[in-house]
Amino acid sequence: MSFVLMVLVCYETFWHEKREYEKIPGSNYMAFVERIDHTERVGICDDNYVVFREAKYYNVTAHDGYLVAHDYSDNLVDIFTEDGDSILPEILKNDCYYYTADTIGYFIINNINDLEYVLITKTGQIVGPYPNMDLLPDQQLLLSRDSDCIRLFTYDGEEISPPDCVEAIFVEETIKQRRKRATSFLTAKYILTRCDSVWLKVSETGDVCDTIKSETVDSLRQNESFKMSNNSKLFEVKVSI
User: Fold this and answer.
1) 168 is in which domain, residue-wise?
2) What is the value of pTM for the model shown?
């Protein structure tokens, strides 16, 4: 029995020395390299050499508690938490990009149908799939662009833009209030959305509040604070009343 144990220990020691190990920056794991079918493939293990994922990848990175691994055989992407939970395991993913915006970390995940998901790392919330997704940190919204149309979502995945929206203006309105000798300021935020030739005033939760005259929108465009936000379909403006 002791001889068998010695053989196992020696084999395990030999196997550890045979592999190449390197700490994965930003994680509690190590990457190891094995030569399989004359190619070097990367696996993942912990500090005790317990294998977390077998050697089948050509690249492994870590961001905000998530590991992203590119499969050698089919060039697809695996994403999982450091606890081992797979992200969208039922979806074939062909790419994944990590971004930060105003301290918000998020992934844009592409599936094989050219649609995208947004994964917000702090909450684990996943929204999608929709075409050409992006995160708007100033508005705390998600954006999807498809041909001439845009769609706006909350971080929880609730759509707040009306159907067939082609343009949006984020308005921050400061209202000056005077009561006796005291002056206070009230700030209201809302979105003006254009659907065909009709402008709608929409709350930050997606409630349609009113129809807006095009003359009102034209006057906002003349405001010195009016500027493009993110792309040619989105704008923002600050007004005082």
Assistant:
1) 156-241
2) 0.84
